[in-house]
Write a structure and sequence with these properties.
It contains eight helices and 29 strands. By secondary structure, the chain is an alpha+beta fold. The structure holds adenosine-5'-triphosphate.
Length: 428
């Protein structure tokens, strides 16, 4: 029996993943089937709180070899590969809705809880991760599958909750989340930053641990939420080892989630028109020199292989990534991934591959006259003239620019990456 939840937290407090811990506590006589799912949906959704995460678990009577995937105080949390019997749907709804009622930040959120004995079609997840869905579409799916739901306020969380159940892990990663003792919520987290800096080298299957450019530990949340830290990676056992390597205050509980983080599943690769609130892969050519706007945002113009002209931008928070965009030149061939913004229709660059560098020429000097002197410029775009013998020339002496970028992938520093964006580390 799947339980999906979403939209329960506020910008500075609580976390929907914590409600999974509370749901596990609420069903002590039932087993977890598979791992809890932490599913990132369309990052371009305007009403998301942070990373547009939705959560789901599957409970039943476990069968097959179980694995330990977490601890709740002194109790192990086990996960079974299959189930041979399921709880009663109405009972699950009643108990799970008490959990949402108790923990949801009702003044800030639109909580949704769904109970489904069957998974919705996978296409629902694909729509939710790439486009904007209507709540009515999701209510229809719940009804068709004979599911139940509970909602507070406008219940928009039902969109994410149902889509999280619809996800079929293909490319998948894991996140190990640790939770603080209740009395410590809101206090400074006690954790060794030094060890976090070492995670990438000690556990190469982990990613987005520390932002070395901004000197920031990316595994620690900024808010007063119950999370102590969360480590992301490709190997669940490595995440447990990584957790054990970090000296910190003792967490009250920890839990492994299977996720679509770091997969780029939000990117639409096959498209004819670019629409706001979705993210695309655009392959094409740079058609002008880069320019910088006040505030430090860097722009380029592109023409895609299917003939669409657009502007793409690397915004100020992407820091040194903007230097890569500044180094692009007319004629370079690139692959750009990013969200189309509603306001200007600009593509917000999340990652870039330089496919081919075009030869670029820069001015070396004014032309030299036959009489041996350097010519002088007559005015912008008007050419050159020798002051002595009045000989004219149109062009300066040019030389091939030595490019400081090369072919390959580039991405922003860890702190300005999206949870769902695939780190280059995972692409190699
Ligand atoms: P956190 O990451 O802290 O859990 P969040 O960023 O996930 O917060 P929510 O508070 O869950 O933000 O808000 C996202 C809202 O958007 C939810 O109500 C969810 O159901 C809804 N939503 C998610 N994906 C879509 C989509 N594709 N179309 C429409 N609504 C969506």
């Amino acid at each position: 029996m799947f339980i999906g939840i979403d939209d329960t937290d506020s910008p500075n407090y609580m976390c929907t993943t914590f409600l999974i811990i509370e749901l596990i506590k609420a069903f002590p006589e039932w087993d977890l089937i598979g791992m809890p799912r932490l599913v990132r949906l369309n990052p371009a959704v305007p009403w998301k709180t942070r990373g547009n995460a939705a959560l789901a678990i599957n409970i039943g009577r476990g069968k097959g070899d179980c694995r330990m995937i977490g601890m709740l105080g002194n109790r192990s949390i086990l996960s079974y590969p299959r189930s041979y019997s399921e709880p009663n749907q109405e009972e699950v709804l009643e108990r799970a809705s008490c959990v949402v009622e108790k923990w949801a930040q009702k003044d800030y959120s639109d909580p949704g809880l769904v109970i489904l004995s069957k998974q919705p079609e996978e296409s629902l997840y694909h729509q939710a991760v790439t486009t904007i869905l209507e709540k009515d579409d999701v209510l229809r799916v719940i009804k068709e599958l004979g599911g139940d739901y509970f909602q507070l306020n406008n219940g928009r969380g039902l969109i994410g909750a149902t889509s999280a159940v619809a996800w079929r892990p293909k490319d998948r990663t894991y996140e190990l989340l640790t939770y603080r003792h209740r009395e410590l919520w809101g206090t400074e987290r006690v954790i060794s930053e030094q060890e976090i800096r070492l995670l990438d080298s000690r556990y190469p299957s982990t990613f987005n641990n520390f932002d070395f450019e901004n000197e920031h530990p990316a595994i620690i949340p900024h808010t007063n939420c119950p999370i102590l830290y969360g480590i992301r990676g490709d190997s669940a056992p490595d995440l447990i080892m990584a957790m054990l390597s970090i000296p910190s205050e003792i967490p009250e509980s920890w839990l492994l989630f299977i996720t679509n983080q770091g997969t780029d599943e939000h990117i639409i690769t096959d498209w004819k028109t670019l629409r706001p609130f979705s993210s695309y892969e655009v392959v094409g050519e740079v058609i002008g020199e880069p320019w910088t706007l006040r505030g430090g945002h860097v722009f380029i113009s592109l023409k895609s292989d299917n003939g669409i002209e657009l502007e793409a931008a690397a915004y100020e928070p992407t820091k040194s990534f903007r230097n890569v965009i500044r180094e692009l030149r007319r004629g370079d061939r690139v692959r750009v991934l990013g969200e189309v913004r509603e306001d200007y229709g600009t593509l917000n660059i999340e990652k870039l591959e330089v496919i081919q560098l075009a030869p670029s020429y820069i001015k070396k000097s004014n032309p030299i006259c036959a009489c041996g002197r350097y010519m002088k410029s007559i005015g912008t775009n008007q050419g050159y003239r020798c002051r002595v013998c009045s000989t004219r020339a149109d062009e300066a002496i040019m030389e091939l620019e030595k490019r400081s970028i090369h072919t390959g992938w580039y991405e922003p520093p860890v702190c300005s990456r999206r949870h769902i964006s695939k780190p280059i580390k995972r692409m190699l």
